[in-house]
Amino acid sequence: MDAASPPVALAIAGTDSGGGAGITADVRAFTACGVHGAVAVAAVTVQNSVGVSGFHAIPPDVVADQIRTVAGDMGIDAAKTGMLASTEIIRAVVAAADEVGLGTRVPFVVDPVAASMHGHPLLADDALGTLRDELIPRATLVTPNLDEVRLLVGVDVTDTDGAREAARLLVGLGAGAALVKGGHLEGSPEVVDLLLTADGSEHVFSSPRRETKHSHGGGDSLASAVTAGLARGMALPDAVALGKAYITRAVDHAYPLGAGHGPVSALWSVADWERQR
Ligand SMILES: Nc1ncnc2c1ncn2[C@@H]1O[C@H](COP(=O)(O)OP(=O)(O)OP(=O)(O)O)[C@@H](O)[C@H]1O
Ligand SMILES: Cc1ncc(CO)c(N)n1
Fold this sequence. Notes:
single chain, alpha/beta, 8 helices, globular, binds adenosine-5'-triphosphate, binds 4-amino-5-hydroxymethyl-2-methylpyrimidine, kinase, Ribokinase-like, thiamine biosynthesis, HMP/HMP-P_kinase_dom
């Protein structure tokens, strides 16, 4: 007899040839969190642990058609965006999202990726306004890091009060909720991620800061684990709690790889099936 079909989560994002971030991290998080991962590739990056040396943006209609073809066949239980590269791709994603119900019938997480952790741009400068004005209002949840917060709402977050104010402004852009991630607040012993929903309820997710330079793909992994929780039908705060639990373990198990920043790891979650054969 066939196994039951798992929920389906869709990542609309870029690839990372080094396998640390982007769609590779997304699908690992989907798998580790118990859902099937489908992908709409928006860009192919030439990337390793040291940085991004180039990228090729996929034609916008091909990005949109990947979303439509997945929705029309297996259905989508939740979706997330990562690197979208250009205004034209964002607009194509918005059109397809409206057609298939992302952000209305289907939970839709927007990770407003602007640059890699090495500081290399992954979004055209002129696309930020489109992301803010056309994509974020459709989001069930928007998940910026502190650099993206500064770009989107002009707030320089240095503490929880600042994160709260930034989240309030992000929800004011039309998102259903905002998760302001505190990974970049280097000095603090706790990493605090603050969730604010449009109805005003606040949830603070805190964990001890790990001393490691190997956190490549951390933001993508968190957003994807939250998306997996939503695909499984969890309420938003529960899905974010799942995401925080996943990323905390993934940072704990991050490993060196290459000369630069190694990835957060999902390998701890891999079943020990081979030794049990
Ligand atoms: N040193 C750390 N120790 C524990 N958790 C961390 C650490 N750094 C980041 N995190 C967690 O990882 C997640 C991603 O946070 P961060 O603010 O680094 O996002 P990001 O910049 O988008 O990530 P990326 O490194 O993929 O660009 C958050 O949940 C954060 O709490
Ligand atoms: C393709 C891709 N998406 C997102 C990020 C940010 O982690 C990255 N470095 N590369």
